Amino acid sequence: MSEIPLVDKAYQSIRQQLLDGAHLPGDLFSESDLAEKLGMSRTPVRAAVSLLEKEGFVQTLYKRGILVKGIDIKDLYDIFDLLGALYSFALDRMAQGMYELDLEAMQSHYDRLVKASEEQKYREYYENGLMFMRTLLTALQNRYMIDTFELHRDKLLYFVVAYRLTKGNNRPYTGRKLYKEILDHLSNQNYMEAKTIIHQHSRNMREDLLRHGYMT
């Protein structure tokens, strides 16, 4: 019987645990523990861990186990710059009347974000915030831009969930006001105003990361 389906199952399960904050940066776990919990042999688990290691989520330590890694601040800067450039490009095209934004989808993500904040569900809150911004890119119908976003989305999600859980005294859910302002501007086709707000937020995040090593 092929092990490929088991590898995929192990990969998705472990990755989901990381994104949910079940394993935080600095935690150690073993292949044996994972295999037992997943009800499978160590072979597919080892292959799944190898995939996650290539993505930068974990690191295998000889005779010690599997270490959950953090995300380098420089890498976060680079991701913010890249996504910010994509958002700006999308907004410029919309301002030229070249594309139409799906405001209904954006409103839906905002509503889910607000609900998640009220229920104190960290992951759902941040995930819908990212999907809110993704709507800007889907309007351009450029699969390469979407693929680029998807490539980095989970790393950002992993970072904010993990660091929110380890630094619980921070100010959670402050992004609601930001997303509402962006949505209002886009609803009124004030694309450049929305662009300014996004850029300012990006600068604020950089400052917070530099001072504290986490995002608000």
Q: Radius of gyration, rounded?
A: 19 Å
Which sequence of SSEs, written as H and E, runs from N to C?
HEHHEEHHHHHH
Largest sheet: 3 strands, antiparallel
Mean pLDDT: 87
Strand content: under 5%
State the low-pLDDT regions, or none: none
Largest sheet strand order: 1-3-2
Principal-axes geometry comes out as elongated
Q: Which class of secondary structure composition applies to the elements?
A: mainly alpha
What is the terminal separation in angstroms? 47 Å
The strand count comes to 3
User: What helical percentage do the residues reach?
Assistant: over 70%
**Count of DSSP-assigned helices:** 9
Q: What would the keywords be for this entry?
A:
mainly alpha, 216 residues, 3-stranded antiparallel beta sheet, 71% helix
Topology:
Layout lengths: L3 H17 L7 E2 L1 H8 L3 H13 L3 E4 L3 E4 L4 H23 L7 H16 L3 H17 L4 H24 L8 H13 L3 H22 L4
Antiparallel strand pairs: 1-3, 2-3
Helix pairs in contact: 1-3, 2-3, 4-7, 4-9, 5-6, 5-8, 6-7, 8-9
